[in-house]
């Protein structure tokens, strides 16, 4: 009888060891095995106040993990449930659950949302980056004018205006704003510009434009003017056609945004007659024929596309309606003057 009892306890002991060993093996295997070794990282937002179950579901919905139950048990075992932080994280299915949990709890992977609006000149972009803690505006200015840096980024101009792609980014914030953090920020904006614009044209067109500084400058400069002239995407090819027609006819462009850009950071929101008459401003398209020397902002894809494919028409004038964001386009000065009078009347009615 004693032998039977002894054998029973030995069996129970061995079974427990095997069970614990199996649990240990599968646990170790799970926390060190990624969901998808070939996947790319992506931004995942963990909202404030999310429960552990909700966090697991968010991760599963984004394919970061492939088993919510196991990840939840692992987080509970590590006593990490209350240490997972809210925020936007750059996470990858190619990471192990162990690495993912570490990113969520240490906060080292938290990304912050940065929005660069369309149509901003470089100094406003610099101000936004400084205000949000990414780099100093003075360092940003120095970087985008660094000749050696511009050469490395294949930018054949005096600065990176036109290449500072407007978009929403998710970035890590540096502990201290230094020259290096400025290079990091500018690099991200420029690399995104190249990534996005390549999809707008076939390889032959891309090569012919991006390897020809004059063509590239003309494209981005025209696109930047279009960007500033109308917010309506559907109007941009029409505006592109207007300026293309004026250039063909050797007419001065008379684009207010170019004059404003030439006034630089000192512009205070009111364009005066003296500004339009200032021939010393190289960006004054009331005084100088053709396109201005360089882009006046970093344009969006829709503006670049419009500059690439201007609409064919006979319009050579346009003016805002004074109601909404749309414009009236005209083929002759008489109709244009009539539209200008209507614009002024609409402004008076809405005062």
Automatic annotation (TrEMBL):
Site feature (Important for catalytic activity) residues: 229
Predominant location: membrane
Membrane topology: Single-pass membrane protein
Regions crossing the membrane: 7-28
EC number(s) recorded for this UniProt protein: 4.2.2.29
UniProt entry keywords in alphabetical sequence: Cell membrane, Cell wall biogenesis/degradation, Lyase, Membrane, Transmembrane, Transmembrane helix
CDD domains named in the record: MltG_like (cd08010)
Pfam families given in the database record: YceG
Highest taxon above the source species: Bacteria
Entry's localization field: Cell membrane
Keyword Membrane assigned: yes
Keyword field contains Repeat: no
Catalytic reaction equation(s): a peptidoglycan chain = a peptidoglycan chain with N-acetyl-1,6-anhydromuramyl-[peptide] at the reducing end + a peptidoglycan chain with N-acetylglucosamine at the non-reducing end
Class of the enzyme per the UniProt entry, highest EC level: lyase
Function in brief: Functions as a peptidoglycan terminase that cleaves nascent peptidoglycan strands endolytically to terminate their elongation.
Family: Belongs to the transglycosylase MltG family.
Protein's UniProt name: Endolytic murein transglycosylase
Organism: Taurinivorans muris
Gene that specifies this protein: mltG
